[in-house]
Fold this sequence. Notes:
The complex is a heterotrimer of chains A (about 300), B (about 400) and C (about 250). Chain A has helices at about 1-40, 45-50, 60-90, 100-110, 115-140, 150-175, 180-185, 190-220, 250-255, 265-300, and strands spanning about 50, 55-60. Chain A has about 300 residues and is mostly helical. In chain A, helix 6 packs across helix 8 (about 190-220), helix 7 runs antiparallel to helix 8 (about 190-220) and helix 9 (about 250-255) packs antiparallel against helix 10 (about 265-300). The longest helix of chain A is centred in the first third of the chain and has 38 residues, at about 1-40. Chain B has one domain (about 1-400): MetI-like fold (Orthogonal Bundle). A two-stranded antiparallel sheet of chain B has the order 1-2. In chain B, a hairpin with a 6-residue loop joins strand 1 and strand 2. Chain C has helices spanning about 45-50, 80-90, 105-115, 120-130, 135-140, 150-165, 180-195, 210-215, 230-235, 240-250; strands at about 5-15, 20-30, 35-40, 60-70, 75, 90, 170-175, 200-205, 215-220, 225-230. In chain C, the strands form two sheets. Chain C has a six-stranded mixed sheet with strand order 6-7-8-3-9-10, sandwiched between helices. A four-stranded antiparallel sheet of chain C has the order 2-1-4-5, covered by helices on one side. The chains are: A mainly alpha (about 300), B mainly alpha (about 400), C alpha/beta (about 250). At the A-B interface, helix 1, helix 3, helix 4, helix 5 and helix 6 of A face helix 1, helix 2, helix 9, helix 10 and helix 11 of B.
Amino acid sequence: MSIPKKWVGRGVALVTGGSAIATVLTVLAIMGIIVYGGIGHLSWDFIFGSPEKGMTEGGIYPAIMGTFFLVLLMSLVGVPVGTVTAIYLNEYVGQTSKVGRSIRFAVNTLAGIPSIVFGLFGLGFFISFMGGGIDKAFNGGELLWGQPNILWASLTMALLTLPVVIVSVEEAIKSVPRELREGSLALGATRLETIWKVVLPQSMTGILTGAILAISRGAGEVAPILFTGAAYFLPELPDALTDQFMELGYHIYIMSTQSPDVEATKPIQFATTLVLLLLTFTLNFSAIFLRWHLRRRAIR
Amino acid sequence: MKKRIRLGEFLIEKGIAAVSFASLGAIVLIFLFVFREAAPILTMHGDTLGGGHESISSSGDASGTGAAETYGDPVGEAESYGDPEPVGQPETYGDDPGPIGQPETYGEPESDSASAQAAAAHDSTEAMPTESVATAEVEPSEAPTKPGTVLEQILGKDWQPVGDHPKFGIPPLFAGSLKVALIAILIGAPVGILSALFTSTFAPRWAKELMKPVIEIMAGFPSVVIGFFALTILASLVQNLFGLDYRLNALVGGIAMSLAVIPLIYTLSEDSLNAIPKHYTEGSLAMGATLWETNIRVVLPAAIPGIFAAVLLGLGRAVGETMIVLMATGNAALLSPSLVEPVRTISASIGAEMAEVVFGDPHYVMLFVLGTLLFAFSFTLNAIAEIFIRQRLSAKFGGAT
Amino acid sequence: MTENIKIRAGKLNLQYGQKHALRDIDLDIEKNRVTALIGPSGCGKSTFLRCLNRMNDLIDSARIQGRVEIDGTDIYGKDVDPVLLRRKVGMIFQKSNPFPKSIYENIAYGPRIHGVKDKRTLDQIVEKSLRGAALWDEVKDDLAKSGLALSGGQQQRLCIARAIAVDPEVLLMDEPASALDPIATAKIEELIWQLKENYTIVIVTHSMHQASRVSDTTAFFYMGEMVETGPTQKIFTSPSQKRTEDYITGRFG
């Protein structure tokens, strides 16, 4: 009796452990392959150069800067809105209130909507409705805002990453002890003064974490910007909100599927992927570190 | 102690409340505006579509409120769109292929001819497909003319959106999405759940500490990176391993997609496994059950609702994910039972074709119809998953909620 | 006698959802005296204390009926601003809760909120408050140090200093010494004796010894009711109610 039972036990441990090991190995393999394929082509010239000769040579500087501007604009909108929402959910409405619950449901739903649908929304709302409306009202119908650009792409991306910011800031706000709020209120501070002077300073780490996670997500998403602003090739950096822009992820997609010579540009593709991967890694790990820091404080 | 009026604070607090409704507003707007662009399909029928552009662009802008009404009751409301206001702005950013380029699909010969000009010139008198967002829910009789064509065309076996005789049959795309998602779940769910079971129960401490960052890394892979990996490495690997005819196919897409799904399923499953109260486990162990018996017979069943929710959300991710399928599946809209032939999914169709269509064009509208389908699908899955997760919570807290 | 009454609660009732936490409380609290509220845990003494500066307002489900008058004004009246009320009625909590800021900033927080901007005035307030809380000599050289770096007893005195920095008339103390060692507790009790010269103090305590040491008047709470009140001496030696006697002699609670 006992021997087969022991074997079954070992089998179960083996199967579950095997899955875990397979997962780890897969991740390591993907990373290894991309590093191996890309490291040789990585150089300062590659990072700070423009694509040349029909994008078969040269660097990816415009794509890096385009990504930078995209996530910058996105954070300028998404982080404040997400922070304010998290504050409202935790400081103004109770866990059980109808308003709070419906906003929470909306945030969860927002987190689950496919990114391509955000792209469609950007096209239908920002470009066609807002942009088209602006053009009709102020531009005499001439096409300026009613076409894909970095502003609409950033706004679309801000919406996509909003749940990331909210969840992360909420976690930080929750870790601020209730006693501190009461201490402030008992001194005759108003609710807003308490939030501004006690809760927010204590939540800065969480806000930063949220911003980083959102940026990491935003830098990696391609589907929402496919038709809201990303450009195939634009050697100039965007200098107006109505400009289109190059973007790292989109560049990888373009280079690996539509490059004039897919085989010859393999090194460029790998190196671009490596740059994107390094970027998201750095961002994710700083977020993990900050969160760890935050949790340690919460425990204490 | 007389009440003091703090106007500034009052306004700021109102502002905070207003901003916080942004997410709620976003959901409504997303639905409205994705649906708004898709709505003209409800007023189109074979002849108007075949007739060309004018009628389409004139119906290009059904009023938002009208769209909202239909949300409430999608069945049989097609008439409410009967008289579209000519507010449409059929701008054609796709006319100029310059900077946008032609993000055309890799390894898909037949739509290489795709171009905005072609899409803009439908002179064919042939009946074009007309269908509703709520697809099957709209009875054929509700198409103003040619009863039956609506359903027939949307259930057509071909998706050939460009050319002289465009065909907008959803089934091949649906089958594509289904194949890829099923393969992804068939691989991702067992691996994710078993790994989660391992780390939350059997694993030694160091293994738990190792898994955490690995899963975080995996979750942090941008989908375009997974797509790139699948396109350049995985595809050849799979082709050589199984001796396949096509390099890019549903199987490659599914395997790649499982990489995106595993971290999600793992994290949510682990959450629900860890949420099982300790006294469950201890009670079982105290009765002389071994560790694995306890884990399989007590912990796992108790966590089933949460794990089910995890799989559902994984399915939602697999169906909605775009870049991976766009790069790894070959993008040919074939309707076949084979898992090793190229497929084109719903999301990939939107991603690949939207940049080259004309605003207000039937093809444009059709892509928004696909988007509405995706939205509705993910919304439903989320709602169901939420119910399961809440059920688990209420079980945990004694049915208080 | 009546002109000496600082706080008067009349028929005060409080419900949390279905739970009736306070029933018909009538209690007069005298000016510049220490009033101790004693009773077993969950008897409503802390809840009552929090009614006196409307901290219960923060709990959505709490419903309050009855009157609480401070200097003859009903603090639950429509035109009373709870924020201004709390400035007049300070509170010290069970767990010391200094802000994660410097000692100086902790004390300056309240005055700043109430509009004091002048640096010298702030300096004066900080020194006066720290002296008032018998903490000045211990911390005068490192006012820039974090309030969290102080010992438990010092933190609690910092909180007292912070409370008196906004110049209140009443100090509510919710088991201020329950987390402290005997020496720190003795310091706090000594401080309470000094403070009553200038402030009306209401202190909740679960230690009967503490109540007998620091208070002039004692009120005994039981199951949401105020059972008995009177001079501390009398309550501890010859209570008129059986329940009070049982509690005092340690038969329950």
